[in-house]
Amino acid sequence: MSRTLTSLSIVAFLIAGTTAALAQQKPPARGIVNVTGQLYRAQNDNHYTVFLVTPEGIIMSDPINRDFARYLKNEFATRFKQPVRYVLYTHKDWDHASGGVVFADTATFVGHANMRSGVALPGGTPALPADAVKMDGNRNGLIERNEATGATAERFDLFDFNRDGILTANELIRGPVNDVHLPTVTFRDRHTVTLGGKRVIMVPLGTAHTNDSTALYFPDERTVFSADVMQIKRLPQSLAPSVGAYVNALRTIVSLDFDHAATGHALMGTKKDVAQSLQYLEDLSKGVAAGIGAGRSLPEIQKTLTLDAYKGFERWDTHRTVHIAQVYELLMGASRAGATPTN
Ligand SMILES: [Zn+2]
Q1: Is the pTM of this model over 0.90?
Q2: In angstroms, what is the span from residue 222 Cα to ligand 1's centroid?
Q3: Do residue 267 and residue 213 come from a single domain?
Q4: DSSP structure class, residue 98
């Protein structure tokens, strides 16, 4: 009796221990929802991708990372009984474009021509980025594994292009993109992919966010997918390289004929929502220009240009004043130079 009780308590103890361990390393939130027809949106925590099921296989967008790609591959095999025939990239950034190798046995990879050069190791002898200089304890201009901290330590192997355990400035500038499977089919103008009677049009978005940013347009599903450039009721992270690049990109998207706006982060929406994001950028630009015209300083403009119409947007309270500063610098730089800046 007492022996059984002891065994039971050990079992209970083991279960409690396992539960605690599981709670500690929380698994990513994952799921698949239908957008319309055979088009689906899949989630990995804060990142999203889309895929279209056709009778001849699956066309998907960003793989996000290797572990999520394995999860998707299993879902595709069990739920849809189809292999991936195409992986279509939205842009080169590691947090969207990693993990494609999982589909390399069946898929063709397609991306903007600038994605290939963007993932390549940059040449020359650049200086260490400012945040890396702080890590460089022995001041040899390199970040050894034991010097790396924070995100650099966490993603060290994704940065380390030649896998020698040391990060050069070139490797740091390239980014943590070692697990990005390169596109073999590239384009510079609109590019159409067809499979199983379905079409996807890859629409370049200029230089907004990255110089390979691409929207995926599913004309029959009346859906657009874009990561990081298109946001719904959410301000962009940054307006790099310029607010004008974002305006152009969103104008390109709004010129398409669609109903569903599927994003790489957060909410989905409609074409009307995308038009509202474009309106934010236009109101921001006009507001800053008017403030400069009225002789106001940057802090004064940041205080008075509240852009209240976007108060319900995510990041309104944190990113609006940063965007005002970015546009202010751009306009003041242009007036100082007496010309329109090229970036
Ligand atoms: Zn990005």
Answers
A1: no
A2: 24
A3: no
A4: B
